[in-house]
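(Structure overview)
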Amino acid sequence: MMRKYFIMGILMCIFGLASGGRATAQTEGLLGEYYGTVNMTELRATRIDSQVFFDWQNGSPLSGLGMDYFSICWTGFVTPVESGIYTFYLTSDDGVRLWLDETMVVNQWKGQSPTEYSASLTLEAGQPCPIRIDYYENTGGAVIKLEWEGPGQTRSAIAAEYLTPGAGIGDRLLYWHRNPHNLHYYKMIGPMTWAAGKAQAEAMGGYLTTINDAAEGQWLAELFRPVSDAAFIGANDIAEEGTWVWDQTGETFWNGLADGTPVPGFYTNWNSGEPNDSSDEDVATIYLTSGLWNDLNVARERYCIVESDIGQLNYDGPSPARTTLQLEDAYEVTVTPRQPVGTVQYQWYKDDTPIPGGTLAKLIVFQVSYEDAGLYTCQITDETPATVRTRAAELIVVKKLPALSVTGLACLATLLAVTAAMRKRA
């Protein structure tokens, strides 16, 4: 009997809500990325918030997020109807940072009771201005409020009609991040030694980052600062003491210790008194709080910043990762690209063989047979061009799924109750 794959054309929303909602239906507000830690890792959900004006007190912003120790990033654009000087007000408990037109204008990344900050900027009528807010909640009350005041606009929360959602930034530790200035991709890995970071970076098709100018260093510091206070970069003098080179190219950019000299045409940003080789220090880190560099011993462990000149794609899935079905059931598996550039293309594979017509984000196989059992992967491509082959999802096909007897159901309920009680005591 001829088998036929039926492919359903469901292009998944780039930022699907964890609660099952869809971000694409809403075009006003700011895109909020909600994280399960204070350092913008463990992305739990994305949603579009019509306003950033919240007082959660001692509660949680959404299901699946704790009352404490979470963080949020809002991205998008604000568009005024009149030209002039606008003042933006932020009230935050705890840490907050604000970017307007790609410039950080508020930097108060610290624990605090509700505190107000402000910054002013000249805006043009009808011209979208990029806006980004980083926020984290430690313990106690949780407050974050964004207001503005300007021509014909009394101080108030910025209404959704003046806001447009952005693309978001993604998990700071798991995602590749695209630098809009040089179009390179960056990812943080670790913690690990410099040598281990170098090896893993090369295995990923990249290298420990080379910082070519102040803008690149500032962008890295602002992006990865929530994750760690320092990270390894590609600078080192392992081959010859005092001759500092970039690992990517082997080019010398600095000679000597702190009183040494940069090689003409190369950018440097050593901290005061560095490099000093105080403890046989042959590799460099960047302080993500300031962007300054320091030399460090190769045996130390730090996060590492990986850079790639070629396009990289982030994705979730395939989901579900493992499925057991009985004959003639329907099989569905989905991948979700995160922050792709331009049009996305898909090609599904079964056991490394392309599936005819399998060219959308969701693959559906109706009435599975034994021949459908196997490993399913998807090749995703965007316009950078970047291509990634996903992890494998496994399909197991059986003649008939076993049914739990009444006794079996009772045993399962007892087991779950015992497990819950043990967790509560722990």
Notes: The helical segments are 194-203, 214-224, 406-425.
